[in-house]
Amino acid sequence: MPERVRTRGLSRRQFISRAAVTAGTLAAPTLLTAAAATPARALSSGDHVPVLVVGTGYGGAVTALRLTQAGIPVAMVEMGQSWSTPGSDGKIFCNMLKPDGRAYWLRTETDQPVSYFLGAPYNKSIPSYTGVLDSEHFANTRVYQGRGVGGGSLVNGGMAVVPKRWYFEEILPQVDADAMYNVYYPRANAGLGANSVDPAWYNSASCYQYARVGSSQAGDAGFNTVFVPNVYSFPYMQRELAGSAPRSALASEVIYGNNYGKQSLDKTYLAAAAATGRLSISPLHKVTAVSPAAVGSGYSVTMEQLDTGGNVVAVKTVTADKVFFGAGSVGTSKLLVTMRDTGLLPDLPAAVGQGWGNNGNVMVGRANYLWAPTGGLQACMPVRGIDNWADPTYPCFAEISPFPAGTELWISLYLAITKNPNRATFTYNPGTGGVDLSWQASWTQPSITAAANVFDRINKAEGTIYRTDLFGVYKTWGDDFVYHPLGGCVLGKATDLYGRLPGYPGLYVTDGSLIPGSTGVNPFVTITALAERNIENVIANDFG
Ligand code: FAE
């Protein structure tokens, strides 16, 4: 008889600790000492679990923590690795200056966001490996995503930004904004370990010269700049600069992972869930199918176990009473569209797969004069943003990004977030067995126009020009890639107002696919806060 990870029936007593969830308790993470979420043991074929969560990013991690705190065992399935074992260089992750196989998900060449320099391609050969950053290619865009236990938190810039309330009300009018801003955003920020740079230290720190230059130039052009919180520990970064701690943010580490300093989900939400003793994680397991169980209630979940070369070494099928999709905007949308259109979950609504947007992302670089150096040492965690979101015609929030080349280059780099109205649809392609995304190259134009409204004015004020050598040969805008995929299973359209998938009791969506294509700022705090809100309702109504 197959081993049962946990029994199907849970006693009422196991639900009593629900109070802890209602109170929103998550002890502030102990900086840099929290144990990484340790995978208990991988699932075996034939296992039955009460709850299976697909993916270990923000939505999945919140769901797993609150359920385990409520006494409910959770099995998480993650296609990426558990990033807990150092490589031969003694480091878990590689840096951006010397990428190796650890950098990319199954690529033989790097695929960097800034992939040109002085007009020449800048990518290099690497061994194919289940690395931490995936650049997933669709017809007209590439979507960057984290792969591993912790999802996007492993590779992102850590910027923990709450959108303006009026914009949140515009994008998700059905959600009670009072509850979001009074309860769930604060709960998310506490759980994520968001903290802010000390302005006095920032003002003199050599590693933030680039941000001070960017802020002052924005000010010259009449734009407001704001400090932005981050989940990277600023006390740790201060020690890095002082030379009393190993460098990470100051050692060109970010999009291929941070060896120190960053409070990624494996050190916060997932570590807290693991500490309940009720969490298991199966890394290097990719969910490929979900359908109603042949016998009884619940769902049958099929997954492929991968080796670090990406080869399938086993196919397993388990059953689960409830399944939460936390595979990210792209991962969840692809899975659900495929399940609907191949007949495994045929009653999923037409809205599944629709409403995908890129958060208006566009990247751009400017060339500064020799007398405006941006610094040879640059902290990889952005802390300043140009806030032009109130502009009625061209809303734009632009993070002042590092260009951590390890040497002075006089480059100012920005990731602009704009209000781009275009939305794409995921469709199952029976010819390839894959999923296509209908995004068109021309659809980034509204983002370019809004960003140009800011950076043309800054260039005019400074007498400077764009760098046209960073994103191609004479190409100004980095508009063919996305850091912030959002939507595909939009709240209130593809799901009910708490992420339940209609027609399939026990199936839920819990990640960035719920957000309708735009947040106006970097999205992970909103994804986390919405997941906090939704799981509270689901625990109160769907368990017990
Ligand atoms: P996500 O974190 O992507 O987690 C999904 C997980 O599911 C991943 O671990 C996948 O490997 C896994 N998965 C996918 N499909 C399967 C499957 N079939 N079976 C098993 N597992 C699967 O989803 N956001 C900010 O707010 N601030 C920033 O500073 C910021 N910087 C960024 C920088 C970069 C380079 C990138 C790529 C993103 C950045 N983001 C930032 C975006 C942020 O990381 C992203 O919105 C969230 O990670 C999305 O959270 P989800 O829970 O939706």
Automatic annotation (TrEMBL):
Any single Pfam family the record assigns to this protein: GMC_oxred_C
UniProt-recorded Gene Ontology molecular function terms: cholesterol oxidase activity; flavin adenine dinucleotide binding; steroid Delta-isomerase activity
The organism's place on the tree of life at top rank: Bacteria
Pathway in which the depicted protein is active: Steroid metabolism; cholesterol degradation
Residue stretches making up the Glucose-methanol-choline oxidoreductase N-terminal domain: 146-169
Keyword Protease attributed: no
Signal peptide: 1-34
Alphabetically ordered keywords of this record: Cholesterol metabolism, FAD, Flavoprotein, Isomerase, Lipid metabolism, Oxidoreductase, Signal, Steroid metabolism, Sterol metabolism
InterPro entries: Cholesterol_Oxidase (IPR052542), FAD/NAD-bd_sf (IPR036188), GMC_OxRdtase_N (IPR000172), GMC_OxRtase_C (IPR007867), TAT_signal (IPR006311)
Entry EC no(s): 1.1.3.6, 5.3.3.1
Cofactor: FAD
GO BP, one annotated term: cholesterol metabolic process
Family assignment from sequence similarity: Belongs to the GMC oxidoreductase family.
Protein name: Cholesterol oxidase
Lineage: Bacteria, Bacillati, Actinomycetota, Actinomycetes, Kitasatosporales
